[in-house]
Amino acid sequence: MQLGNSRPIGLFDSGVGGLTVLNAVRKILPNEHLIYLGDTARVPYGTKSALSITRYAEQALKALLRYDVKALVIACNTASAVALDALIANYPSLLVMGVVEPGAEAAVKMTSSGQIGVIATESTVNNQAYQKAILTRLPDAKIKSAACSLFVALAEEGWHEGELVEAIIKKSLNSLFDEYRYQETHVQDRIDTLVLGCTHFPALKTAISNVIGTDVSLVDSAEISAQQLVRKLQEHHLSASESQQGRVKFLVTDGPSRFARVAKHFYNEPVDVEQVELIDIQHFG
After folding, report:
1. Class of the 101-221 domain?
2. Which sequence positions are flagged as catalytic?
3. Are 8 and 69 a contacting pair, CB within 8 Å?
4. What secondary structure does DSSP assign to 40-91, as a single string?
5. pLDDT tier at 156 (50, 70, 90 boundaries)?
6. Rounded Cα–Cα distance for residues 213 and 177 (Å)
7. CA atoms within 13 A on the CB side of 266
8. 9-98+223-284 — its CATH code?
9. Domain coordinates in residue numbering, the chain
10. Which residues are paired to 117 by β-bridges?
């Protein structure tokens, strides 16, 4: 009889965006203990160098290892794109996964034309992690990408819908969907699948769909990553007992009050500031 593994799962992000991943994991795995670390002192990662991002990610992992985590989900597209391979290489005995590979796999499965769009932060777009992951699976894919860093601010401020939000989205996506596409004119070589390549972006999913049309499939990396986590836990025999009631712990590197306030825009459960522990992540350098 398998008793289950009660050790917690660690999730790490540069700030609050990864709460969309936590939300999806919590929904699909309510029996797992979860520890979420937001590196709010050094957010955003999207403008940082690859060297800095990799160092931050390793510090976050070391901090989470204090809690004997059985797995780590890098709930940040930028850190996944830059630091995943290094963490896997340096910690071979730990289950480590990011959000880029699951998103790319889902995009390939969803597209019927091979025309795929990717929206993300500047760093993720420039790194071309999604482009590489998609082309590995679908060499004939045609990929267009756009840096939409302004979407991060909209999501954190709770501006998720309305005419102004949709106007900003439309302007930001003009390089992917030209004016004819917005007017529902059928044009050749149009994108049929759009990857939300930043964990903040699922908060804007409805507004994005309103702008580009419901015939474009949206890939929510948060939901897809949660589904892959379930499979990986099962493959490694790390799943918790179904009778266990999962708990959630929050760690931040700065601003517990702001984190608790902004969390409501990304996480379905209330987060009280007393639930948020402030840590010095650089201690783990």
Report:
1. alpha beta
2. 76, 198
3. yes
4. TTS---TTS-HHHHHHHHHHHHHHHHTTT-SEEEE--HHHHHHHHHHHHHH-
5. confident
6. 10
7. 29
8. 3.40.50.1860
9. 9-98+223-284, 101-221
10. 144, 194
